[in-house]
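Colleagues,

For the teaching module next term, I've prepared a clean inverse folding example: a structure given as tokens, and then the sequence designed for it. I'd like students to try predicting residues themselves before seeing the answer, so please don't circulate the second half yet.
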């Protein structure tokens, strides 16, 4: 079968101009059933900074997000997270696209990290994760700029949906900063 070429639009989520599809699916065949070869230039993955002091939860959440294609950096401490973010900002390195903070962290809580970033005036879309059922946590977190508060244990689908939502906000903000329409 001869390869066919098809143009990609920016809505496809890649920076590619052309897609080489070796075996186009028949009308009654889904793309998954068709064997294909792709040549694309993809955008860099969405970066996530995940901060949780529970090593098991941190590693499981990091693996779930990596399996979804996110570039994940995992830390266990609020001060380490704040130092990492400050050093990135000082070095001119872009901040992570999404920040996930546990509510209770050693040395500096998730809300303490968020409050420090708020005072600096720069922070990525942030998700707070907590084991507390008290809804006052939600009010504190959202008043400081958190996008959502997730309750532990967080189901993988809920985590991935929340990160997708946060990443889409980051993507929209970047497009606005570059003068493009969202």
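(Answer key — instructors only)
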């Amino acid at each position: 079968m001869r390869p066919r070429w098809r143009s990609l639009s920016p809505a496809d989520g890649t920076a590619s101009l052309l897609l080489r599809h070796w075996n186009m699916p028949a009308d009654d065949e889904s793309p998954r059933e068709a064997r294909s070869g792709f040549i694309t230039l993809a955008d860099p993955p969405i970066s996530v900074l995940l901060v949780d002091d529970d090593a098991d939860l941190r590693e499981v959440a990091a693996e779930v997000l990596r399996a979804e294609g996110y570039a994940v950096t995992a830390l266990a401490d609020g001060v380490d997270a704040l130092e990492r973010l400050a050093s990135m900002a000082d070095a001119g390195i872009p901040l992570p696209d999404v920040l996930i903070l546990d509510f209770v962290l050693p040395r500096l809580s998730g809300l303490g990290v968020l409050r420090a970033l708020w005072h600096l005036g720069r922070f990525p879309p942030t998700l707070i994760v907590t084991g507390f059922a008290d809804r006052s946590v939600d009010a504190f977190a959202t008043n400081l700029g958190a996008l959502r508060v997730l309750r532990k244990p967080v189901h993988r689908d809920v985590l991935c949906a929340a990160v997708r939502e946060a990443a889409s906000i980051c993507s929209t903000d970047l497009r606005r900063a570059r003068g493009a329409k969202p």
